[in-house]
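Quick one: structure tokens for this chain, please?
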Amino acid sequence: MSSSDRAKATLHVRSASGLDELVVVDSEFWPVASGTGALTVSLAPGIYEVVARAGPTVRRRLIKLVAGERRDEAAPEVLFPASAPIRGTLMEDADQLALVRGATEAVADRAGVAAALCVVLRDAGEAGQRRNDPPPVDLLDVTLRPVDVFSSSWRLDDRGRAAISVGTPAPGGYVLRLGQDFETVDQSLWLPTDWTTVVFVTVDARGIQPASASVHMMPLGEAWLGGRDAAATELALWGLREGRWQAGEAATEGIRAAAAGADPILRIAATHLLLEAPRVDGPTVASIVDGLARSLPDHPDVVALQLVAMERGVRLSSRPALPRPWPPMLLASYRALLRRDAVSADAFVRGSIAERAAAAVMVRSIWTTWRPISPSDRIPPRLARTTVRAERVLDKVARNPAKVRRPNVSDPATRRVAAFLTAVADLDSGSYRPRVADLSPTEIALATGLPMATVDRSLRALWLSFAGLAVLPLVVTLTALVGLLAVASGGLMLLGPGIAPPPTTPLVTPTPTPSSTPPPSSTPTPTRVPSVAPPLPGVELPPVLELPATPVGEPTRTQLPIPNVGDAPLSILEFSLSGEAAGDFTLDEGECRHGPIAPGDSCTVLVVFRPAVSGDRRAGLSIHTAELGAVTVALAGIGRPTLSIEPPAVTKLAPGRPQSVFVWATGPITIQSVRLGGGDPNDFQLETDCEGALLTPERGCQISVTYTPRGEGEHAAEIQIVTDDGSVWTVPVDGVNVIF
């Protein structure tokens, strides 16, 4: 040991819980050591401060170190507030802990139970005086209809300070509806198979407080003990509330202590914190997320964690199961799904609660909560029939921003989109080119926190509100004018553009008899004025446009002529694509929207097919016209699997040093053979496991090529990969052999 080491002191600090954040601060107020649960550091003699933190609670202690001392120091005891009656916290309560333990243990005695839910209302004020009043809590299923699990099973502790109820609904998504005097809040729950979920909710003089709720989980049939792992869960949830990513380290210690049986909520919350750190611990995050994906692959929070991990560049062995029908429990998870949907429009099942709740979300806590929404997603028929491009809506907003300041709509999502567009339009004041016109639906979705389908519907609703303000008065005026002209002309009907004839009996006018004085018993003879149908355009299109089989990721182009076979000009307003694979098709509209198509003429649309995946790819092409409405053509193509080869070429090989080539496929492809060809195939050798292998996006194979020159100089060849459809894929290889 050196003299400098003998002059120092060794300090070992440990916390009783093993979860506290520990910091040692020197006399100049600089932190000199930090750790979670415990730390060991060599320090110069002097005065130091030991700081222990758990949640919002911080405790400090001054210590003095002398030269050569080896000191074991117990960290100051830290009692932090928690929503659950956990041992070693400010909210520890032995009676409530026993109540929850007994209720969770009793679940094991129920036959045929796949999941369980325990709801605990704590510190209920004068609950002892209201034993007969049902707690303001309901459970709703995926159809937003009540599930009768809490109506008659509430129990109170002896002091009336906690109410508890246990139900055993089927696994899946639920809404925990928390009623208050001034509003009702819906909170997302997901009950996984073989797990008990415990929700702790605080009730004070103001009523139920969803913002301070906490959720814990344990294997079905096991008791909730309120121990170290529960404390770690509370610290992780506090870290999310405060945006303190450092709390993730303490939560990770709790995960290590609990090993494979760690509370999934603890693992999910801790991983969110780890992913918020400036430098992400990729291996730790991957281990936790992949473990969750194996045990809870359909849990919406787990799927969201996979997306966040991929955003931060963490390599996972699992893939997220999308789209999701139910919103995650944590708001951080829900935001991750919303970000994904804004970019890929594949995060949510169309019309699901996960998609619809976004417009009613209440950002008041770490949990996904929203104002109650309608059980069914009823779209007004006019809105459902309306198709309009986002560019047209935004262009109209750019030209007249006043139209969106007070839109004539009641839908909260549409009003949110309108408010965002108004804010952008206000920034555009005086700009040469308004920025609002350059917005994309993705940017609107990211800014408003709405799914892409909701943004699309909101833009269509705004378009209708524009039309209602501008067109409706004109229609009324023309209708009134037609009525006046009809009377003034003795029954002649005049129809302006867009005014349909009435669906009643054709117009008749009274014609007097030839006698100058008709007899009293005679009646006028009605005379019918013949109506002439106006000429109309016509369109003849194939019901299905078949596109050629196309390699995945590569484009093919097919022309679609649109002839006007009618007797009047045809005006095309716009084109739209719909269907599951609509993203695989794009359009080059050419001259089709540059003016009316005269009778007998035609225009041509170029349909570009670029399949994203292999297999049948179908979509619908709607051609919206002013005279005929929408005319639809089905688009059908086949995505042909392709190989993905990395690296695409192997160059400058050194003799005797093998180089690996990795091969994947965008769809199922069988490799028939792998061989060498080209100029100098005898100067290279191959080893591979590809021959006969069935490749998929998840399963690849490997080729090892070695340069074995027979003489000096440069040599080149190619690896030829033959697939089951007869295609040959080549990888150029070359090497240089220099003899000194």
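Residues 255 and 267 are 7 Å apart (CA to CA).
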